[in-house]
Design brief:
The chain is mainly alpha-helical and 156 residues long. 80% of the residues lie in helices and 3% in strands. The chain has 4 helices and 2 strands; from the N terminus they run αααββα. Strands 1-2 form a two-stranded antiparallel ribbon. A hairpin with a 2-residue loop joins β1 and β2.
Length: 156
């Protein structure tokens, strides 16, 4: 019973947090739209076509909104690309195609097979190194014993 109440309270807190985040976002967006509206436009001494087009506050406002929207889209796109790349790297999903260049599945399988072969070879070599190290230690002990025996026989 206690777990159900706790789950409902966490769900309610999450919903309240989401509503608060949406409200703050809407308020921030409204303030941004209001702040982008031009208060006054400078007058040109000899206006040309471009000056006449941008002499309208609505046109300047829409142009500013368009620039801010483009910046937001580019920012979210960049964040998406970075997060997506990190997630794919974490899941070991490597890049297989970039533009006209593509790595076939057989090539990937061959590389993975070679990697496994090198890994097994390295493990076998490591085992051989351990075995040889043990034999070398035994040989050192035997040589020390023979030296000690030789010294005793010379002293006698």
């Amino acid at each position: 019973m206690g777990k159900a109440v706790e789950a409902r309270s966490r769900h309610g807190a999450g919903t309240a947090l989401a509503v608060l985040a949406i409200a703050v976002s809407v308020l921030g967006l409204a303030l941004l739209v209001k702040g982008l509206y031009p208060a006054n436009l400078p007058l040109a001494k000899n206006p040309d076509f471009i000056d006449n087009v941008f002499d309208n506050r609505g046109v300047v406002w829409v142009a500013r909104l368009l620039l801010v929207s483009a910046a937001a889209v580019l920012a979210f796109g960049g964040v998406f690309i970075v997060v997506s790349t990190v997630i794919r790297m974490k899941n070991r999903e490597w890049l297989r195609r970039a533009g006209p260049f593509e790595i076939s599945e057989t090539t990937v399988n061959e590389v993975e097979g070679q990697l496994e072969q090198w890994r097994s070879t390295a493990l076998a070599r490591q085992e051989k190194v351990i075995e040889l190290t043990e034999r070398l230690d035994e040989s050192d002990e035997l040589i020390k014993g023979l030296h000690a025996s030789l010294e005793r026989s010379r002293n006698d």
